[in-house]
Design brief:
- This protein is mainly beta.
- It has a single domain, classed as Exo-inulinase, domain 1 (Jelly Rolls), CATH 2.60.120.
- The chain is about 10% helix and about 50% strand.
- The chain is built from one helix and 15 strands; from the N terminus they run αβββββββββββββββ.
- The strands form two sheets. Strands 1, 3, 4, 6, 11, 12, 13 and 15 form an eight-stranded antiparallel sheet that branches. It has a seven-stranded antiparallel sheet with strand order 2-5-14-7-8-9-10, with no helix packed on it.
- The longest helix has 17 residues.
Length: about 210
């Protein structure tokens, strides 16, 4: 949230009014930004406001607080997906922190946006086993690669971030820009969420959404 500090001591009344208006505008601007930290969610079940069409999603306790973790060891072709309910957005700045815990067939994961349903959406993900960062569209459950970047894996917590406005997609990994593509498969607003594949056991935290409007 935006922090606003206002000092009103010994100020004329009209200046106080102006300052209060500025503060209201600043806080109203935060309506376009939301962060899911999972700190208030109960452990052992999916986070409030999320649904998991595939995979087993549970809130877990970590050394730094809580996170949403995918724990199922699914077959190789399974896309594990946790979608945020009651949110639909088109142009956005979306990011998440993630940690690859385990996985023999697959590891890592990323963010989903403009999702129509569990089989149609955009996905940007990092795979530690392949040392690559990729963006896809998923149509009827089948992925089509739009862009890729080779990034050597390092243990620990990392971040994936996507900015999409209109048809333009920019993808960041640990705050560094790696991929720029354009695609018009999904032009309408849709759901957001987090994603992993197969048996990738991955923890997600601080899912951050900022809507981008005119």
């Amino acid at each position: 949230m935006t922090s606003v500090t206002i000092r009103l001591r010994n100020k004329p009344a009209y200046l106080c009014s102006i300052f209060m208006v500025v503060a209201a505008v600043a806080f109203a601007a935060d309506d376009s930004r939301r962060i899911w930290t999972f700190e208030d969610d109960a452990e052992g079940s999916i986070a409030a406001g999320f649904r998991g069409p595939a995979g087993n999603w549970v809130v877990v306790k970590t050394k730094n607080g809580k996170a949403l973790e995918q724990t199922a060891a699914n077959p190789n072709a399974t896309f594990n997906l946790a979608l945020v309910e009651k949110i639909s957005v088109k142009d956005l700045d979306l990011s998440v922190k993630f940690e690859a815990i385990a996985g023999k067939l697959d590891q890592g994961g990323g963010v989903v946006w403009r999702a129509r349903d569990a089989k149609n959406y955009y996905i940007a993900r990092y795979n530690p086993l392949e040392d690559n960062y990729r963006v896809y569209n998923v149509i009827d459950g089948k992925r089509i690669q739009l862009g890729s970047a080779d990034i050597p894996h390092a243990p620990g917590v990392h971040s994936v971030r996507v900015v999409m406005k209109g048809k333009n997609i920019t993808c960041y990994y640990d705050d560094k820009k790696y991929i720029e593509v354009a695609d018009e498969t999904f032009v309408a607003a849709g759901m957001i969420g987090v994603w992993s594949k197969s048996d990738a056991r991955t923890r997600f935290d601080d899912l951050t959404l900022e809507t981008l409007g005119d």
